[in-house]
């Protein structure tokens, strides 16, 4: 059984289909049709809901952290121990919520189909903001698409909603809600079981290892932003899933003098601060990683584990020399991330083995990252490049160059690196290294970019890296090219 709060109503579910998304649960099981389906792939934001969960900034100081999510990519099992808030829950005692009122007064709704999603993103923004901030508003709304081109009044509504925000029913019930969330905090493995399909929700790494050993055919579910597409887009059935999002050990982010250790189930939005502090370019790239709804849900471990050749984080992590800790039963092994990827969607992971955490070294001052995509926000890379050189007295003593979108896997450019290592860091060396990239990669053409565009972009990004190191005042990294 799993338990969660639907606003303030306690819901206990056991026999639901684990493949059921929160979107369809709201619409088809509860008759709450305010949440809309626009794309069923996490691109449009029409299905945005907000999930509240207990969070402690320090011991004994619990609060509720509200996060916007795409309901179309969220399986109901991930609600275990949390609070679900949909657009129907905002109006209270006949009065519109302040974010809804702001949308009305600023004329932020036109055809209205996308409006519930915008309202819920604004609600989460208001809960997480102390004052109007245009940058945060753009970030909060980047994952919501308005087909009527009504962004200006919606941004005005965001400013109004976050300016002198009034207390609402969620504020007045906060103590009560915290107590109720504590009362339903999971204490043992939860389960949804519809007879032919099941989802298990362990609470510890040890329990996960035992369950995965017992069900090696199970699909691991973290954020689900990729896995859920198999259900919503390809209409496949997932007979057995194991949800790892309630395992606190796998959500820890720890900073040491020489490294970061990031739990594989830590949401990308939680990873931002630590990665940005260590490597500003990594932080900038995360700002362009899909939308806030996706970053609130998707995990660093999942972005590695799905072995996509166009995942944004693996090239950066490979260039930094990152490692992953793989767990199977009581056994752990540490593997260089570059050795994890073998072929297209094929990895070195063994049966019943899972990524427990990612180890990211610190101290690489010349690390830079670049993303080439058709749109600045909420888009997949055509090419993602990461460069990490060590230069001593004008000579390159070490080089790690990695790309995504250029091969069947995220991959180091070994020929390029061999040209660089031991050479003088100058324009002539860079041109030789650019030529060597053609030996490292034979990219494919697809709807995102042609093979010629990809190769030329990769070469130009190396040239860009050289120019920026020569003129550090130029800050044009992580740039989109149209």
TrEMBL record:
EC code(s) of this entry: 1.17.1.4
Keywords carried by this UniProt record: FAD, Flavoprotein, Iron, Metal-binding, Oxidoreductase
Residue ranges occupied by any FAD-binding PCMH-type domain in the UniProt entry: 192-365
Superkingdom assignment: Bacteria
Signal peptide location: none
InterPro entries the record matches: 2Fe-2S-bd (IPR002888), 2Fe-2S-bd_dom_sf (IPR036884), 2Fe-2S_ferredoxin-like_sf (IPR036010), 2Fe-2S_ferredoxin-type (IPR001041), 2Fe2S_fd_BS (IPR006058), Ald_Oxase/xanthine_DH-like (IPR016208), Beta-grasp_dom_sf (IPR012675), CO_DH_flav_C (IPR005107)
SUPFAM superfamilies according to UniProt: 2Fe-2S ferredoxin-like, CO dehydrogenase flavoprotein C-terminal domain-like, CO dehydrogenase ISP C-domain like, FAD-binding/transporter-associated domain-like
CDD domains associated with the record: fer2 (cd00207)
Key word DNA repair present: no
Protein name: Xanthine dehydrogenase small subunit
């Amino acid at each position: 059984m799993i338990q969660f709060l639907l606003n303030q109503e306690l819901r206990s579910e056991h026999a639901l289909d684990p493949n059921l998304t929160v979107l369809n649960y709201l619409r088809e099981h509860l008759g709450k049709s305010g949440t809309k389906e626009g794309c069923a792939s996490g691109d449009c934001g029409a299905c945005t809901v907000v999930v509240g969960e207990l969070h402690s900034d320090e011991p004994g100081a619990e609060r509720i952290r509200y996060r916007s999510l795409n309901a179309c990519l969220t399986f109901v099992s991930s609600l275990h121990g949390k609070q679900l808030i949909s657009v129907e829950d905002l109006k209270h005692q006949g009065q519109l919520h302040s974010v809804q009122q702001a949308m009305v007064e600023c004329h932020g709704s036109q055809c209205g189909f996308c409006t519930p999603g915008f309202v819920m993103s604004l609600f989460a923004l208001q809960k997480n903001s102390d004052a109007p901030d245009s940058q945060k508003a753009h970030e909060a709304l980047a994952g919501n698409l308005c087909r009527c081109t009504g962004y200006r009044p919606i941004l005005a509504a965001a400013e109004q909603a976050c300016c002198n925000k009034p207390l609402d029913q969620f504020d007045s019930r906060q103590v009560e809600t915290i107590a109720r969330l504590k009362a339903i905090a999971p204490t043992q493995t939860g389960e949804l079981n519809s007879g032919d399909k099941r989802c298990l929700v362990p609470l510890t790494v040890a329990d996960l290892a035992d369950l995965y050993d017992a069900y090696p055919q199970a699909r691991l579910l973290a954020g689900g932003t990729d896995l859920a597409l198999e259900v919503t887009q390809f209409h496949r059935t997932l007979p057995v899933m194991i949800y790892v999002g309630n395992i606190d050990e796998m959500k820890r982010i720890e900073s040491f003098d020489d490294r970061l250790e990031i739990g594989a189930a830590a949401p990308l939005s939680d990873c931002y601060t630590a990665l940005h502090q260590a490597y500003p370019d990594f932080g900038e790239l995360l700002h362009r990683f899909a939308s806030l709804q996706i970053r609130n849900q998707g995990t660093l471990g999942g972005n590695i584990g799905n072995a996509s050749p166009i995942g944004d984080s693996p090239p950066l992590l490979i260039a930094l020399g990152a490692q992953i800790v793989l767990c199977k039963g009581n056994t752990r092994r540490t593997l260089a991330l570059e050795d994890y990827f073998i072929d297209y969607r094929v990895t070195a992971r063994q049966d019943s083995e899972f990524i427990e955490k990612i180890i990211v070294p610190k101290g690489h001052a010349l690390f830079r990252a670049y993303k080439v995509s058709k749109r600045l926000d909420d888009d997949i890379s055509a090419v993602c490049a990461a460069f990490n050189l060590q230069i001593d007295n004008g000579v390159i003593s070490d080089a790690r160059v990695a790309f995504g979108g250029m091969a069947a896997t995220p991959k180091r450019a070994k020929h390029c690196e061999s040209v660089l290592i031991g050479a003088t860091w100058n324009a002539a060396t860079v041109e030789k290294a650019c030529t060597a990239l053609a030996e490292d990669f034979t990219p494919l053409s697809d709807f995102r970019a042609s093979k010629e565009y990809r190769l030329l972009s990769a070469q130009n990004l190396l040239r860009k890296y050289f120019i920026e190191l020569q003129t550090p005042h130029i800050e044009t990294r992580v740039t989109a090219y149209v």
